[in-house]
Each structure stands twice: as structure tokens, then as C-alpha cells.
Design a protein that fits this description.
Order of helices and strands: EHEHEHEHEHEEHEHEHH
Radius of gyration: 18 Å
CATH class: Alpha Beta
CATH architecture: 3-Layer(aba) Sandwich
Number of domains: 1
Bound molecules: adenine
Pfam families: adh_short_C2
InterPro entries: NAD(P)-bd_dom_sf, Peroxisomal_t2-enoyl-CoA_red, SDR_fam
Number of helices: 9
Pathway: Lipid metabolism
Subunit structure: Interacts with PEX5, probably required to target it into peroxisomes.
CATH topology: Rossmann fold
Strand content: 5-15%
EC number: 1.3.1.38
Shape: globular
Length: 267
């Protein structure tokens, strides 16, 4: 059941990067349930095709494998959207990735990989979709998923740095592109129950249990709660809001226990 009008995104086209699984999949699903036509992309073709097949039960869903670190592959996604729909209304920058590590153990390759995906990739997709669709249309909406990193992100310094960059990029493009009737905002999820959590090793999973106890609402968030925040920012319900970050974290950004993150690696 949804509190939003079922036709909130009728005749609208949305691209969700990293839409194959987890939070991205939930966002794609929710947009489809509210009338949008959706394109999902991620790197691996087979699971992406499978996700698109399942999502197609809810409406029109197309897919294109794409590594967002390669702007020519991002251009190919724009080509597909142009051929299939001839327009784009909403870009959800959800693709990203990181691995837990103390900063001094992150080697050049690991550092560059995380910066490249989260910061460079998000920039490439935003620029390409703005040039190809939003600016010519004089309308567009960008919602970018980041993390809570306002107080740093011990244990994941690379993604904290990249996402802080993405948040600042969002503020810049929101101002540069307001004249084209483009809005750009971020959503910063806290600890969310998603398939992504299963990929972490045991100490991180123990940490997640502790974070739940620390949370003032005494729980983790749900993917639906993140998707509902995206829906708000992607829709005319937020038409006078741009350049902000909406925290979906049950208050963690105000008080989260940094010591737990620093101690994760038991040095
Ligand atoms: N999801 C995680 N990393 C990605 C990448 N580089 N391109 C597309 N989707 C991704």
C-alpha cells in the first residue's frame, strides 16, 4: 500500500543506475508501481536481465548493462532510452560500491576503484543525461543516493570521501541547472535492511546489530522508506526543493557512535 497517488509518475521515464538489486531495485519497483516507465542498468548482464524480467510484471522496464565509470557506456544507455522512450524525466543515481577497511590499509587500486565508481561514475551519468535529455527538454530531476558521512566515515573512508564529493557536486549542479528547470537532491540512507548487507563479513554483521541497538528508533530502515524518500524528491511534491540531502536514517546523522566504527577492526 502506498500513500502516493498511483499515477504520480504516469507518462514519466526514469533511469535507475544499480537497479538490479537492493535499494536500487526497490526504487525501480516503486517508480513502476506509480506509473513510471523505467530503465535499469548495472554491470552484469545476466542478473540485470533477470531483474528487468521480474520488474516488467509491474510495467514497462528496459535494461542495459553499463559500467558507469565508462562514459561511452553511459552514452549507450542514453541511446537506448532515446530509442525506447524519446525522453527522460528522472535520474536516480544509485549505483555505487565500497568495502570496509581502515584508511591506511586501502591501496591505490581499491581507493581509485571506489572514487571512480561513486564520484566519477555519478558525475558521468548526471552530465550525460542532462546533456542528452534534461537540458534540451528544459525539465529534469536527479536524485542521488549517498551515505551518512557528514562526520566522516571511519571504516569506509574512500566512500565517505567520494559521497561527500557527490553531495557537493549535487549542490553545484542544482545551482547551475536550475535555469533549465532541473532539480538535483541527495538521499542519505542510514543502516538499511537490504540484500547488500549479506555481502559483509561476520564482524560487520555484528556491528550492524549494535547499530540497531544504538538507533533512537531501535531499528534499521527499510528499502521502502528509502524508495519513498526518492519518490518525494523525484516528484512535483518537492517542486521548490533542490540541492538538499534528505536523511533517511532514524536520526543516526545526529548522534551515531563513531567509536563502534573505529573499533570494528580491533586494532
Ligand atoms: N554498481 C556498482 N558499481 C557499478 C558500476 N561501476 N557501474 C554500474 N553499476 C554499478
Amino acid at each position: 500500500m502506498s500513500y502516493y497517488a498511483p499515477d504520480l509518475f504516469k507518462d514519466k521515464v526514469a533511469l535507475v543506475t544499480g537497479g538490479r538489486s537492493g535499494i536500487g531495485y526497490a526504487i525501480a519497483e516503486t517508480l513502476l508501481q506509480h506509473g513510471a516507465k523505467v530503465c535499469i542498468c548495472s554491470r552484469k548482464e545476466e542478473p540485470l536481465a533477470e531483474a528487468a524480467r521480474t520488474l516488467s510484471k509491474l510495467g514497462t522496464c528496459v535494461y542495459r548493462p553499463c559500467d558507469i565509470r565508462k562514459s561511452e557506456e553511459v552514452e549507450a544507455v542514453a541511446d537506448l532510452i532515446q530509442e525506447e522512450f524519446g525522453r527522460l524525466d528522472v535520474l536516480v543515481n544509485n549505483a555505487g560500491g565500497q568495502f570496509p577497511s581502515l584508511a591506511r590499509h586501502i591501496n591505490d587500486k581499491g581507493w581509485n576503484a571506489v572514487i571512480n565508481t561513486n564520484l566519477n561514475g555519478t558525475f558521468y551519468v548526471s552530465r550525460v543525461m542532462a546533456e542528452r535529455f534534461f537540458i534540451p527538454q528544459q525539465a529534469g530531476n536527479i536524485v542521488t543516493i549517498i551515505v551518512n558521512m557528514a562526520s566522516g566515515f571511519p571504516g569506509m573512508a574512500h566512500t565517505g570521501a567520494a559521497r561527500a564529493g557527490v553531495e557537493n557536486l549535487t549542490k553545484s549542479i542544482a545551482q547551475e541547472w536550475a535555469r533549465f528547470n532541473i532539480r538535483a537532491n541527495c538521499v542519505a540512507p542510514g543502516t538499511i535492511i537490504s540484500s547488500g548487507l549479506d555481502t559483509y563479513a561476520e564482524p560487520v554483521r555484528q556491528l550492524l546489530d549494535q547499530l540497531k541497538e544504538d538507533n533512537l528508533m531501535q531499528r534499521h530502515g527499510t528499502m521502502e522508506e528509502v524508495a519513498n524518500a526518492v519518490l518525494f524528491l523525484a516528484s512535483p511534491l518537492s517542486s521548490y526543493t533542490s540541492g538538499i540531502t534528505l536523511q533517511v536514517d532514524g536520526l543516526d546523522h545526529l548522534h551515531a557512535n563513531r567509536m563502534r566504527l573505529v573499533n570494528l577492526f580491533n586494532e
